[in-house]
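## retry 2 of 3
previous attempt timed out at serialization; input unchanged, resubmitting
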Amino acid sequence: MYYKYAPGVTDCIAILAQENMFEMAQNVHKCLKEKYGDDRFSCHKIPRKIFNNKELYPNLGSIPIKNKKIFLFHSLRYPTDPNNSLLELENTIDALARATIEDVTLVLPYMCYCRQDRKDKPRVPISFKVIAKMLQMYHPLVARIITMDMHADQC
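## retry succeeded, writing output
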């Protein structure tokens, strides 16, 4: 992926990561810094709060992301179950949508529900298709999704 920059422009891409993906994001940030030799990339851990009733609250208020391209590292299974992780991802994307950013590239090393990729009985959902559509259509800011180790070709 190649991004064009005006002369003297730095810090145009922000790498954001949830807590358990921060080490991977830091490694990617380090490789990019070594390759390009400048400060066009910044790396931040997304602070989150857990209320007493177990609701998750990602807070992007202190992270400088205005007018940047965002690479969001997020796991859809750990440290909580995939349903909570998916809801946390949607809340984070919504918070990004309310900021003035260019676009979001999701880096999802694990895609939840990818084993539910076909209809094997009557009246059952194709859950992976639902998740893929939700990620693709929920916010127009999500430009790309990077994932790996898919269960089947149809995913």
